[in-house]
Give the backbone structure.
Amino acid sequence: MTPKGGARSATRSEHTLGLLLGLGAYGCWGLFPIYIKSVAVPPVEMLAHRVVWAFLLLLGLSAYQGRWGELRGALRGRRTAALLAASTVMITINWMVYIWAVASGRILEGSLGYFINPLVNVILGVLVLKERPARPVVAAVLVAAAGVGWLTFQVGHPPWISLTLALSFGLYGLLRKVVSVGAVIGLTVETALLAPPALGYLLWLKAAGSLSFLSGSAGRDALLVLAGPITALPLLLFAGAARRLRLSTLGLVQYLSPTLQLLVGVWLYGEPFTPARAVAFTFIWAGLAIFAVYSLRRGRPEPVTEG
């Protein structure tokens, strides 16, 4: 094989590996409702466990990789620390609302939020970054907005869960876009900021005799500890995929997550896919189709999401 052929083969192998990593990351995020349902603890306690165990795992990973300098730098810089504090607020809102939605039998509303999210990114880019979207992008946003408007009209109120998830994660992505730290270091700092109140809340539950951890089955305790790897592993898979794939490819792979959430909600947990929801999702999918086709042709899609 010629060197040129060998380079092409290596490129194809890297692309295949990146695609598998991306599918793994978004597959994990898409199946996350099954984990939340299986653990079956109150949403705030679930969030606290996710923060504490993820922090311990990420801290150990940072130590293993010798990244203490990056962590200290992220915490010392005032601007970086302030941006990460703001992103911590956004990801806390996002995690809490999503866990509550799944626990309350509203997985479909959660999936709708993550379908909307890429288009919310466009709106934030216009409002905050003063970007000028092309006409197909504007059309995509308007078509998706029609779907949200239809659903609002049918149910009598805006889909607050979906909009809160989309907006909080959109703002989170915007903040992480302008802060100069990597994904792992950023999440380590965010969980470090959340860990003290999360641990304090768990200790308070223990003192009140209502802590689920170590008070039930060993299986549930193991699942709660797994909240750390379940939070960190998809992020690491995503980071590997992002290094190997074009953004246009990742921009399409990201829709695997809300699609799986939708299927899990309907087929596994029997949430109703009403005609009103079907019409709304059709509009939103049409908007996403316009957006995806334009992104592929331009090769410059909006940033992909992390869960």
